[in-house]
Amino acid sequence: MIKVPTARPLPLPTWPDSADAALSLTFDVDAETGWLGYSRFNEIDYSKWLTVMSDARYGIVRGIPRILALLDQFGIKGTFYTPGATAERYPEVLREVVAAGHEIAHHGHLHIRPNLLDRDGQREELVRGIDALETTLGVTPTGYRAPAGIMTPETFELLVELGFTYDSSCMGDDRPYIEEYEGRSILELPSHWSTDDWPHFGWNLDSGTAGPADQDAFVRTWMGEFESTLEEQRHLTYVMHPEVIGRGYRMLALRELLERIRDSANVIYLTHAELAELVAPAGIDSL
User: Fold this and answer.
1) What residues make up the domain containing 246?
2) How would you classify residue 104: left for phi > 0, otherwise alpha for psi between -120 and 50, otherwise beta?
C-alpha cells in the first residue's frame, strides 16, 4: 500500500487585538545559494555565470533594504527563511534583519532541493544550516521551509528528529494544520504557489522562462486571496524572494497591497514563530 501524508485540521484561534484575520509576510533569502548548490547536480558551474550571480545578489543589495524599510513603515514583523550559506556570505545584512526584530527561519544550507539528496545528505544540509545561523547570527531556528518547496519522507523524519517546531513546505490546507506521515507529526504553516511571488515574476531555472510581469494582476490575485481569508477569518502566508519582490515597481505593488489590506479590515501580522505559538501553544503533542 502506498503511504500518503494526512492532514489534521486545527481550530482557528481568536486572533489578538480582536483582529478579523491574520497574515504572515515571509521572505526566502536565497541569494546565490540556489545556483551554487544546484551546480553539484548538473555539471554547470553557475559561479562563473556572472550575470546570474549578480541578479541573485540583487536581493541582498537592493531587495532587503527596501523590504526592511517597507515593513518598518507598516510596523510589520516578517519571517526570513535563510539558507545558512546566505548568512555566511552576508552576515551584516542578515544581522540588520535580526536587529529589526524579524524572525530568521531555516531554508537549507546551500538551498539544495531535498529530493536530490539521500538521508545523510539531507541531514548534513539541515545541521550545517542550523550551525551557520547560530554561529553567524546567534539564532537557533525553530521553523523550516524546504528549498524549492520539496519535502521528502526523509526531510519529514529529520525535521521531527531535530526538534523543529513547525514547517512551511506543504500545502494540504489553507489554515495551520498538523501534517502527519508514518506516525510522525509536525505543525504545518502552509503556503501556496499562487501566493508566492516567484510564479508571478521569477525566472524558471529548468525551463528558462519568466513569469508574467503584470503587477496589477499580481495585486488582484493576492488581494483576492486575502478577501477569502478575511471572509473565513483565517490565516494567510505570503511568500516572497528579495531578488524578485525587491525590484522597484514590485515593491510599489506590495505597498499598494498592504495599503489596501490596511484600509479594508482589522488585520494582525504574525511571524511564523508567533503563529506557531498561537495555534499550538503547548506543542502538537498536546493537541
Assistant:
1) 6-286
2) beta
